[in-house]
Amino acid sequence: MADPNPVFLNGEFYIYYLIDTAFHDWYLTRTTDLINGTFPQRVLEATGDAQTQDQWTGSGSVIKDKDNVAHLFYSGHNLDFSPVEAVMHAKATDNTLTKWEKQVNNTFSGTGSYSDFDFRDPDVFITNKATTIGCY
């Protein structure tokens, strides 16, 4: 287990994390008390494909927008690409937040003085007024 990415939704902690094997797929366990939890399940797979930005996946964050749609932002890593790392996006396709559809056209990366090798682990947030989405 690596890089836990927790979010509190619907009265539960959703703890997304990477499995430190293969290409670092995303897994999820849920808990209401941080002691007892659900059996871990894979929710987002790295492709393992040298032709895609998310050959490997890295950390990120999960948010819900003003329309109550859940979004998962994660790192895509591929040594054969330039930039090597980019922020990628997936949308939940169900209310359990276990099924995600990748939005490959929403991929973005740093430019100019940003490192193309260390542009990862996005922390995405929505302002209190739900008018602005930010990322750092």
Uncertain stretches: none
Under CATH, the topology can be stated as Tachylectin-2, Chain A
Strand order of the largest sheet: 1-2-3-4
Number of helices: 0
The Rg value, from CA coordinates, equals 15 Å
CATH-assigned homologous superfamily: Glycosyl hydrolase domain, family 43
Q: How would you describe the shape?
A: globular
Structural class: mainly beta
Strand content: 35-45%
Strand count:
10
* Count of domains: 1
Give the CA-CA distance, first to last residue: 23 Å
The average pLDDT score comes to 89
Order of helices and strands: EEEEEEEEEE
User: CATH first level: which class?
Assistant: Mainly Beta
Major β-sheet, in short? 4 strands, antiparallel
Percent of residues in helices: under 10%
Protein model, in words:
This protein has 136 residues and is an all-beta fold. It is 0% helix and 43% strand. The protein has strands spanning 2-9, 12-18, 26-31, 41-44, 56-64, 70-77, 85-92, 100-102, 124-126, 133-135. Strands 1-2-3-4 form a four-stranded antiparallel beta sheet, with no helix packed on it. Strands 5-6-7-8 form a four-stranded antiparallel beta sheet, with no helix packed on it. Strands 9-10 form a two-stranded antiparallel sheet. Strand 1 (2-9) and strand 2 (12-18) form a beta hairpin. The model has no long low-confidence stretch (mean pLDDT 89).
